[in-house]
């Protein structure tokens, strides 16, 4: 291994996990729905793909089937929430638990190895094919989010009452959004299984936090002016996350098992920083304004435009 | 055009908090009618709007639009006929989306929402044209996020979004109440011209007595969940604010109390 190969490794896994991050982006950012199905549906994608490959199906078909498994899992969470009127967090948790058993049924045992079998990475290196898949997925996702249905989906997370008054069935848009989200998560699982040559029952543990970390890092580093910009930031955020983790692991006294703690700390910092910065800014602004008002004394400030 | 027959609505039925929000409401509107609605706080005006638009279902009675019973249809299905503007300027638009995206969503009212592009060049031309008629420069800002607009601008946009697909019925629930007088006046002017131009069947709740008298061809007064007074075009012509308030007190037995009351 040459000394910089770890960077390429990080870029590769960052791209592979980017689909999962995009899924998390759809639920957490667009729908404003904290979906915890992710940990389960990631494994579902890996399990379906792994088992299909061991049974001799073509890797492409197995990958699509993994994606479809995620779609179904997400649709179930959406149905629980909208039709069953179960609290959002709870629907996700219920589905995640249910998926544990289902995934074990699919796998048949806790670990399925596909080492040496055909995968979509057999003839082309991941670093060549994954960027292509990422660009295709980004293109399709954005095209969808700017379609009539996509606009209704985005409005569902932004102002549900408003979009309903314009005739959108928000139960339907939520189900579509959560389903699509988990489809992308499962796609990640399907690709990771092929890259690492095995599917494990606990492969998805902690995915939700990793996804969130990627979304937050992407936003913080690259911004989020509009949906296209935002989705690209999320993909890049996923890559940066992997680089950060790889760097952290090069520190001698840290171990691979510390990754989840590091992830949690990244998310905590990302969540705490903006709000403390805001409070600090407001204090500063308040000081400045009161000083101004005291100085100016009588001069009245004018109101804004229409 | 719009008919409510024996509509009643209770909140928290059979509990100590039971509240009769609407009681045997009978309201028939002809096409092109512009009805203003006044009444005390808690009279049931917003509940009436919610029953018509399908946000709530009546406990008894039915709602008919164009002689079709729509009582069983959910809000999102009824919206093909109904445009609404709410009191809260935040309520009628999606703040994190752009002006043109908001308009595109309004444009899709009553259509199947599919995978075709929401904002197209041809639609953009149409949006610009409609926006420029508002006369507040929004046509220059198609890509601005709606959250950046002021309350007045948002309300003007909401009004446009509610009307430009030509709904059968327009419901306005104190849509100028949250604005300062100058901006309220602007929105009132826009409302007047849009309703007249498109000949929309309109039901407008207002807290402004002068406006209630000046606008529209019919005025109804609500109190305690009932329509207690219904004034037609003829009688409305020589109505004054004092006469209106006097009449209210006489029928209801108490003063009109509205925390947002504006006499004129
Ligand atoms: N969701 C609800 N649950 C319980 N009671 C309600 C609910 N909505 C309205 N009410 C009650 O029903 C009555 C009618 O309310 P409504 O909002 O229709 O009055 P309004 O005429 O619009 O008053 P305002 O002038 O304050 O807007 C009020 O007494 C209100 O407290
Ligand atoms: Mg009201």
UniProtKB/TrEMBL annotation, chain A:
MF GO annotations: transmembrane transporter activity
Tagged with keyword NADP: no
UniProt keyword terms in alphabetical order:
Cell membrane, Membrane, Transmembrane, Transmembrane helix
Which InterPro entries does the UniProt record give? ABC_transp_permease
Question: The organism sits in which domain of life?
Answer: Bacteria
List, alphabetically, the GO terms of the cellular component aspect.
plasma membrane
What membrane topology was assigned to this protein in its record?
A: Multi-pass membrane protein
Major subcellular location class:
membrane
Subcellular locations according to the entry: Cell membrane
Which residues are listed as membrane-spanning? 6-28, 60-80, 87-107, 127-146, 172-193, 205-224, 231-249, 261-280
Protein name as it appears in the record: ABC transporter permease
Protein's organism: Paenibacillus glacialis
TrEMBL record, chain B:
Pfam families attached to this UniProt entry: ABC_tran
Domain of life per record = Bacteria
One GO cellular component term noted in the UniProt record for this chain: plasma membrane
> What does the record say about its membrane topology?
Peripheral membrane protein
Keyword annotations for this protein, in alphabetical order, are:
ATP-binding, Cell membrane, Membrane, Nucleotide-binding, Transport
Q: Does the keyword Hydrolase apply?
A: no
Q: Per its UniProt record, what InterPro entries does this chain match?
A: AAA+_ATPase, ABC_transporter-like_ATP-bd, ABC_transporter-like_CS, ABC_transporter_ATP-bind, P-loop_NTPase
Has the keyword Disulfide bond been applied to this entry? Answer: no
Q: Which GO terms describe its molecular function?
A: ATP binding; ATP hydrolysis activity
User: For this UniProt entry, which segments traverse the membrane?
Assistant: none
Q: Which SMART domains match?
A: AAA
Residue ranges occupied by any ABC transporter domain in the UniProt entry: 2-249
Localization in the cell: Cell membrane
Protein's name according to its UniProt entry: ABC transporter ATP-binding protein
The organism encoding this protein is: Paenibacillus glacialis
Lineage, highest ranks first: Bacteria, Bacillati, Bacillota, Bacilli, Bacillales
